[in-house]
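Structural prep section.
Before we set up the soaks we want a predicted structure of the protein with histidyl-adenosine monophosphate in place, mainly to decide which crystallisation condition to try first. Input record follows.
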Amino acid sequence: MIKRIKGTQDIYFEEMKYWHYVENAIREVTRLYAFQEVRTPIFEATELFKRSVGESTDVVQKEMYTFEDKGGRSITLRPEGTASVARAFVENGFVNLGAPIKLYYVGPMFRYERPQAGRLRQFHQIGVETLGSSHPTADYEVIEFAMNLLKKLKIDDAKLYINTVGCTKCRPKYKEALKDYYADKIDGLCTDCKRRYNSNVMRLLDCKIDEGVAANAPSIHTYLCDECSNHFNELQKLLSANDIDYEIDPKLVRGLDYYTKTAFEIRAESLGSQNQILGGGRYDGLVEYVGGKSVPAVGFAAGIERIIMVLKSMGIKPETEEIASIAVLPMLENAFTLAFEYARRLRRKNISVFVDVMDRNLRNRMKHASRIGAKIALIIGEEEIEKGLVTVKILETGAQFKVDGDFMANFIEEKLIEL
Ligand code: HAM
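Run finished without errors. Recording the tokens verbatim:
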């Protein structure tokens, strides 16, 4: 048997309800916040991610699904969405459409990571990006959006952590200070830390293995330039003024290179080691980096699988989904024409209808009607055809009515309102 690839999932039936629950909340909250959907390709030129996510990051060094296509181009399955959004912004001239441009996306991302609970090789993100504003209110708004998305999903087991990673002006001095601090400790650190010392020294701060050493490292907050410091203070004021609880985590540095100033994450303790539900921040240099004008931007992405894990751990169950309101059950070969005609009439009234095209007895037809969540069954047998009637059965109560075929659609419409 051919099996699915390690770190991927089939999503179906009961599990699908959770996805619809999350996707519906996403559509609802993005609409309330006036974010517009963008869909970019799931593969891009490898160069895009190397340049934006950063050559020295784990994502680019170890986790990308990269291959050569038949034309000899290096292609990569997207490991994240922000780089693609920045590219689409530049390539399609969004800069001319006025600012800010507020976009969201939902879709699969690919990272070659060691699979474990909450960590997959194909996972799904909902991401939002606001492009065009350098103001801390834009950072605040995407954070508020994230909090409201979680609220809509009824997730209250989640905590916001914020930090700043400085900018190209102040960060180099901070990195020097970190290198000095780590210089005489590097021999005793883990292999990842050793590798990152030269290429990405800030990542040493969020190493799980060498947490103890990082505890006494210099803080970025003493190295910030005035602009970054003011930006961070303003964001905090906005969060406090709007009653959003947060904690400053000076070790929060994010794993992608494009961040400037604000960085934030929301973590749910119940998730264990992969407890980050979402992460994001400001990336003022990225659009220019991928070939556009200088356009400040901020956004975040959340892992849908992780959101679903939190829902399950909190015991939140999405309601049973109705696949069709009405099940039409033709009991004879010659009842099908009428069955499809009745179905058409109901669909014209915007009512979802399942026509049973299987060859089986009434008991089994009724069983299936319940399974798909139908509220009403329409039974068409010999007597019904002869008299131009139809039997309407309310599944919940078992009540039955014989209704004239011509009035069937109106009758059902009214019954559905009552149910
Ligand atoms: P990220 O922190 O790499 O950020 O990923 C965002 C979220 O995707 C994580 O918080 C996590 O929930 C989920 N995630 C990441 N990797 C996996 C995985 N292997 N399996 C399951 N879930 C995963 C970004 O991707 C940035 N593009 C976010 C952003 C948008 N920053 C600004 N705008």
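Observations: DSSP finds 15 helices and 16 strands in the chain.
Flagged for discussion at group meeting.
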